Amino acid sequence: MKLRIIGIVALCLLSLAVFGQSGKRKPVTTVVKGIMTNAQRGFFIFEIQGKSDTIRLNSKGQFEINIEQHSANYFSIESNRQEVQLYLLPYDTLSMTLNGINITDLRDLKGRSAPYCDYLAKRQRADKMFQNTFSAANISLTPQGYYNKVDSARAVRQATFAALKSTFIEPFVEAESKAINYQMGNQLLTFMNQNNKDGQKQYPAAFHQYISSLKLDDENIAYVKEYRNYIKNFVSLKALERYQADPERTLLKYYEYMVDESCKGLQAPINKSLLFAELMPQVMKDVGMQDLTYIITRLEECSNDEKLIQSVKRYAAQFEHLYAGKPAPDAVAFDINGKTYKLSDFNGKVLYIDVWATWCGPCKREIPHLKTLEAEYHGKNIEFISISTDRDLNAWKNFITKESMTGLQLHQSDNPSESMSYLYMVNSIPRFILIDQNGVIVSSDAPRPSSGTQIRNLLNKLLEG
């Protein structure tokens, strides 16, 4: 598919060869145009088959998009954290009025694609009402009661669609019929995911029977939102079950299980590519500089999306020197009297380092927990070091005196090349770093003092070793 923007918007070009019975023919053009009222921003996101582009509004809120396509396809518009799905037929001009406050409130729909888009918007609004009225009741419902409720909602959706489907083309009828079923499956998986976190393990047989009746690897509807959400929830549930049985309950471990279950559960390359394209940005955002070696290995084994794999590799390469087992960079810091220290000065001791600042609220909330931890391990072979990144040295000095800060209180070096921020790539605080007696990194993003047994188990293991 090829998207081409005329005039007031800028869009990347995507290409797709189109073949007719007698050979090659030119793609046809579908136009989407209109106006956005109550626009919260001067643009919206337009998505097709996993690719997103920014569509800018003119001064009157108008837009126009030319789409080169040879078959009907699902599209979506995202604005202000809301989304509305579209289904566009080729050789068509669809005009509409969008509401920036409620993106599913489509008005003035005109064009052959209008009935499809109207149906999708109405279904989304009905589903939102269902979720809003039902969410408060979820807490008190038994699993069987929840199943009965969502099954009844599915029956209503099916009846509504049955009354309309004779006016739609067959590919849309097939996709939407499946979407209704996957939507219920998604609701069941969401319920199980939420309750499993609270220890719920037993569900009626109807849950498992319904979920097993749905095809996990259906590439014919790879771009249908309900199906894509179902895949994510299914993989997440499997990963969560493994995560809860693992004593090493870290966020990285959970994502490793997510990738592993994706590789095991999906065979169609397009389905895996779409799932990884959504998952990996979140992984890289959440795990920071933790070791992505296992995730990269699994991606190379089961994905043919070389562009995505290379982007993950480039991201991981920035942090490889901070992986567990690597020598700890020898950062420099100074105390309140100006005495200079290097981390290597403490070789032979376990180091638990808090990188913080006096203006950082989350940093200050960790201080009572850190003091408790320091008191518990007093006299043991461990050094608790707090290294400030404050620009205002007086604010730092006054704070540590006023709050009677314990442990070794230091400020990072004024020389950027030897500072904690530079050497340990600190881009958010608080950051806790754990180094063993040999000056080797245990974790460059260690559990916080408030994590309780998680950090204590790590410290005990190091001190016993």
Protein traits:
465 residues, alpha+beta, 7-stranded mixed sheet, 5-stranded mixed sheet, 13 helices, 43% helix, 21% strand, disordered N terminus
Distance between the termini: 59 Å
- What fraction strand? 15-25%
On the 0 to 100 scale, the average pLDDT is 88
- The helical percent reads 40-55%
Can you list the strand order of the major beta sheet?
13-12-16-15-14-17-18
- Please work out how many helical segments DSSP would assign: 13
Oligomer: single chain
Poorly predicted segments: 1-23
Category by helix and strand content: alpha+beta
Coarse morphology: elongated
CA-based gyration radius: 27 Å
The strand count comes to 18
Major sheet size, sense and barrel closure:
7 strands, mixed
Describe this structure in words.
The structure is a single chain. A hairpin with a 2-residue loop joins strand 8 and strand 9. The radius of gyration is 27 Å and the shape is elongated. By secondary structure, the protein is an alpha+beta fold.
